[in-house]
């Protein structure tokens, strides 16, 4: 049988050096944990927000019913219960004319399970050709083409614009 050997006892200076290394490692792990937590918080904070499928359907309707837009920029999106989506967007045509529009859109599911636009209202003032029941029905008949690519749909919500004009500086 082999004899039991005990490890040699550490000297006082060796114990101090070992204790210092252990404290350094602990401080390093705490520092790295704080840096990782701050990094995750910043990544979460700067990540884009995404809207629902209702927003995507209303956005697709607007994109298909604007004639010859050079640029469409969605400024503000608000989603409410019951499929109600309120959108504000800026349109720049090829001649450089800029127009701002507000659209209220209600997306609903029919009794047969088909999803589609129930009502749409541009600028809440006068009737527009895009609001016609025939146009909405035509879009709803072809909505399967929009829904077929819903995983590729750009649902990024626009960044919030400041309410006060002085914040634009």
Structure report:
With 169 residues, the protein is an alpha+beta fold. The chain folds into 2 domains: 13-47; 53-148. 37% of the residues lie in helices and 22% in strands. The chain has 4 helices and 4 strands; from the N terminus they run ααββββαα. It has helices at 12-46, 53-65, 133-141, 143-148; strands at residues 71-79, 84-92, 98-109, 115-122. The protein has a 4-stranded antiparallel sheet, with helices on one face. The longest helix has 35 residues, at 12-46. The protein is elongated. The termini are far apart. The relative contact order is 0.13. The mean pLDDT is 85.
Relevant terms:
169 residues, 2 domains, single chain, alpha+beta, 4 strands, 4-stranded antiparallel sheet
Main beta sheet: strand number and arrangement?
4 strands, antiparallel
Strand order of the largest sheet: 1-2-3-4
Task: Tell me the total number of β-strands.
Answer: 4
* First-last Cα distance: 85 Å
Structural class of the secondary structure composition? alpha+beta
- Number of separate domains: 2
Q: Please state the average pLDDT score.
A: 85
Level of helix content?
Answer: 25-40%
Order of helices and strands: HHEEEEHH
Question: Quick gist of this model?
Answer:
The protein has four helices and four strands. By secondary structure, the protein is of the alpha+beta class.
């Amino acid at each position: 049988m082999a004899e039991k050997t005990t490890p040699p006892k550490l000297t006082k200076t060796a114990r101090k050096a070992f204790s210092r290394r252990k404290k350094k490692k602990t401080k390093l792990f705490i520092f790295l944990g704080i840096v990782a937590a701050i990094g995750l918080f910043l990544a979460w904070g700067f990540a884009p927000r995404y809207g629902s499928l209702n927003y995507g359907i209303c956005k697709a309707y607007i994109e298909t019913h604007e004639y010859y837009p050079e640029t469409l920029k969605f400024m503000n999106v608000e989603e409410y219960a019951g499929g109600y989506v309120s959108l504000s967007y800026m349109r720049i045509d090829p001649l450089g004319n800029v127009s701002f529009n507000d659209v209220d859109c209600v997306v609903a599911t029919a009794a047969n399970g088909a999803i589609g636009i129930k009502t749409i209202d541009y600028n809440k003032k006068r009737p527009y050709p895009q609001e016609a029941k025939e146009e909405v029905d035509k879009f709803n008949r072809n909505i399967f083409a929009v829904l077929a690519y819903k995983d590729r749909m750009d649902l990024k919500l626009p960044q919030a614009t400041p309410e006060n004009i002085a914040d634009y500086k």
